[in-house]
Amino acid sequence: MQGYTEKIRKYAADETHIGLLDKPDGTGEVGLRDQDKGNRLAVRFTLKLDNELIKKIRYQVFGCGFTIAACAAIAELSEGHSLQESIQCTPDLINRKLGGLPEERNYCAELAAQAFQAAVNSARNGAKPVAAEIQPEAEEDLNPRVNRRDPFYRALLDTDIPPGIFYEDRQMFAGLLTLAKQEGGIMTNRLGLKSTDVDKILAIYFPGFDRRKVTSSEPQPKQTPPPGINPDVLSILLSHVPCDQAGRKAHLAELLAKAIACRAALPGHLWVSMGLLKRPQLTAAIRRHLPTLALANNKGMRWKRYLFKQACDMNGGVMCKSPNCADCSDYHLCFAPENA
């Protein structure tokens, strides 16, 4: 996993303070307000006090290992200390505690610190939960990031449509390749695929497309670092790749699974990160290529939340308030109409 140092791995794997305290003296959240629902990471801290001292602290995370590590660092820095001392638990201090987060992951420490400070404010105000507002610099554009008129996108879709190929799959892979190209850097790293995988996608869905356009050396306005793939999310996705009677995996479904795992590591909605134009396109693609995964998510949970919740459950972590989704006050954050 790119950017995961040994120290960050250690904190990300530390389950000492994972969970939810019963009848807490302070509760702070970020990413769980109605207007934030499903947009990105979510963090919740609960505190138990002994006078002004933080006697116990627990956190719940929906997000990447960097965010979990940041929360674990906060717990270690604050438990046993006073509320006043805990004000010093800033993103910079968290970053230093972890030995330095990758620059593109600094927002993980910022969100964790926001949720923790909200919990401190809650403890100071009679235990009423406080929902911190996601700062503008951490917000994501919720609109499609691929323009139908993009020359690269159009060039892909202007190739001949091979027999037996779904147009929806061509549109999906065209958007994915276009977005990866826009982001700059090595395209295969942006997709979690090998060069031969990209060649196969081009050959099957866009025959005759000039492969050199994919590796064009045209200058990009900004190159964002490739995402760090969560191995548990990747494992979950690959476990749903169908096999033929000889036990061979459906190769294109496997490529899609790898791409989803890679793009799920990015902030924001998964369908946006996949280069799709509408949310329902992601569910439709999963139904076509990973049908058992579509069946497993039988309640229609948002896909990124579903995948990371499964990964969290695999490792004994807890993000949910309630063991029963229907009874949970956060239901609307995980489930939403496909057109929402």
Automatic annotation (TrEMBL):
Pfam families: NifQ, NifU_N
InterPro entries reported for this sequence: NIF_FeS_clus_asmbl_NifU_N (IPR002871), NifQ (IPR006975)
Gene Ontology biological process terms from the UniProt entry: iron-sulfur cluster assembly; nitrogen fixation
Annotated NIF system FeS cluster assembly NifU N-terminal domain residues: 4-122
A molecular-function term among this protein's GO annotations: iron ion binding
Listed name of the protein: Nitrogen fixation protein NifQ
Organism of origin: Malonomonas rubra DSM 5091
